[in-house]
Amino acid sequence: xxxxxxxxxxxxNGTGRxxxxxRRLEHVLRVHRARAGDDLKVGLCGGKIGRxxxxxxxxxxxxxxxxxxxxxxxxxxxxxxxxxxxxxxLKRVLxxxxxxxxxxxxxxxxxxxxxxxxxxxxxSRGAIHEQLVLGLEQACDTALPDVRLFTLFKPFVEDELPxxxxxxxxxxxxxxxxxxxxxxxxxxxxxxxxxxGGFVPFEINLLVSQGFVPVNIGKxxxxxxxxxxxxxxxMFY
Length: 237
Fold this sequence. Notes:
The structure is a single chain. The protein folds into 2 domains: 4-70, CATH 2.40.240.20; 76-236, SPOUT methyltransferase, trefoil knot domain (Alpha/beta knot), CATH 3.40.1280.10. It is 32% helix and 27% strand. β4 (49-57) and β5 form a beta hairpin. It has helices at residues 22-32, 87-100, 125-139, 153-165, 201-209, 224-236; strands spanning 4-6, 17-20, 39-44, 49-57, 62-70, 76-83, 102-108, 146-150, 169-173, 189-193, 213-215. The strands form 2 sheets. It has a 6-stranded parallel sheet with strand order 8-7-6-10-9-11, with helices on both faces. Strands 1-3-4-5-2 form a 5-stranded mixed sheet.
């Protein structure tokens, strides 16, 4: 991790001293190989970024004095809607989107999404939170993305997406689209990415009827975990 993400419950009695155990302590010991007196880059979830000076460090506990002064990096002005991928791929998609600065992630059902995916432990609140935190730690960010789930395609597209996409440029990734994905977008956008195997014609037509423009990222057919950063990079970076 490039940043140690702190939470309010990490702080001791409302002071500027934080206490860590578990995964983050293990990382400091085994990866950073830090010692008492060292400074580590830290950030408060939902807040600022700064430094934590290690005061006490053992195999059981770390305590540091924290000073938070810098703002978190700018958010990516995009709502990302992804047809629910298989669980292993979902983890990578969530951590990647979080690292790239996406703050609104929508997971939805479509014809080529296996119904069993919706019963996966990867969709538990704790599992989703873990992947989002990993992305923030990688990118030195502190703003936790909001993730919402939609288990029915047609109501999602007809009842939810129009409101969500209002005031944004609306795109749907589609390998057969004639129009290329635009680059260097300056205004907010809504991006829809389909499942492995792509959308069926009915789904694409319904999205188009709601104002979404089909765009491609080239002639190659990409996995969802590759398509997400490829589209986001093309559009905003």
